[in-house]
Design brief:
The chain has 351 residues and is an alpha/beta fold. It is built from 11 helices and 14 strands. It starts with 5 loop residues before the first strand and ends in a 26-residue tail after the last helix.
């Protein structure tokens, strides 16, 4: 089943081994994609679907210094070399569109203030051009500031299609802006965007409505991480939250829902796959720590429709071939995950 085709909305996937979005910090100045990135993604074109690294929908929202953007014509043209390279190898690729919210830092963004659902600072530090600095206190978005961000997501989706992508994945996970609205540990608003599950989900649903109207919901995916405590996130009832979302996401008729099943730091635990599978009627993609065997078993048991692999795909450009043949996997070199240049990026061997 892992190597059988899958129809995900408008996307016809040749297999169910997907490449998860992975921040690699290789973009050029101006948040421009480049030839090295095109080589990296083209090497992995045998994935059923490639989901790119998180990509900025607006200026002054950078969290990683060297991540790409999709908010100007130069970036759109630069992404073309990536999509053309992947399509030339027979691959399929969607752009993950993203607003970092409070995870952005003024020292990276020319002094621009960070924003979030509420004026609550994330714990810890951020790597900036000035070294590691404490995370910045965000400005709580006013209700009248939110529509412009919703429209920025929609415009990013339109720009992605101009750049040759097959669709987009809305980043609603890992403690970035949409997730900051969803979870009650970061959303303490008292207006229409806070409090109840319906209110906390309002911003996400507005984004999905706008992006779907822009490019068609059958080319839109969504990534969620109800348990992940990355970026100092938590929720008082993560299973209740994801159950609510799973049921209400059915109306969007998305290409797929991409679910992170665990917490990087094990601060929150629980089974989120079972309730989502029971409530969500669309294509469900699982992610986080799956082996090839476990992925196959989950798909055969009907728990998932596909599995997205992260570091395994980072270190194994030909991952589907290796999994299908039972071949050994290259080990990823964590010291090169975010360093410039080809080492640990485009130099992993294929079979």
């Amino acid at each position: 089943m892992l190597f059988s085709p899958l129809q995900a909305g408008a996307l016809t996937l040749p297999n169910r081994v997907l490449m998860a979005p992975l921040t690699r910090a290789r973009a050029s100045a101006g948040h421009l994609p480049n030839a090295l990135m095109a080589e990296y993604y083209a090497q992995r074109a045998s994935a059923g679907l490639i989901v790119t690294e998180c990509t900025m929908i607006s200026p002054a929202t950078s969290a990683f210094v060297a991540e790409p953007g999709i908010y100007n014509d130069e970036q759109v043209q630069a992404w073309r070399q990536v999509t053309d390279a992947v399509h030339a190898k027979g691959g399929r690729i969607v752009l993950q569109i993203w607003h970092a919210g409070r995870a952005a830092h003024p020292a990276i963004n020319g002094g621009a203030p960070t924003v979030s659902a509420s004026a609550l600072v994330a714990e810890g530090e951020t790597q900036t051009p000035d070294g590691k600095l404490p995370n910045a206190m965000p400005h709580a978005l006013r209700a009248d500031e939110i529509p412009a961000i919703v429209e920025a997501f929609a415009e990013a989706a339109r720009q992605a299609m101009k750049a040759g992508f097959d669709g987009v994945e809305v980043h609603g996970a890992n403690g970035y802006l949409i997730d900051q609205f969803l979870r009650d540990g970061s959303n303490q608003r008292a207006d229409a965007y806070g409090g109840s599950l319906e209110n906390r989900a309002r911003f996400l649903f507005e984004v999905l409505d706008a992006v779907s109207a822009a490019i068609g919901s059958d080319r839109v995916g969504l990534r969620l991480s109800p348990l992940n405590s990355y970026n100092s996130m938590k929720d008082s009832d993560p299973v209740g939250l994801i159950s609510f979302l799973a049921e209400h996401l059915n109306r969007f008729k998305l290409a797929y829902l991409h679910l992170m099943r665990a917490d990087f730091f094990q601060a929150q635990t629980g089974d989120v796959v079972t309730p989502v599978r029971a409530l969500y009627k669309g294509v469900l993609v699982g992610n986080m720590g799956y082996s090839g065997d476990e992925a196959s078993q989950a798909i055969e048991a009907g728990q998932l429709d596909a599995v997205a692999f992260g570091t395994a795909f980072l270190a194994n450009p030909d991952l589907p071939t290796r999994l299908q043949g039972g071949a050994p996997l290259n080990a990823p070199d964590a010291s090169t995950f975010y360093t410039p240049g080809p080492r640990g990026y485009t130099d992993y061997p294929t079979l």
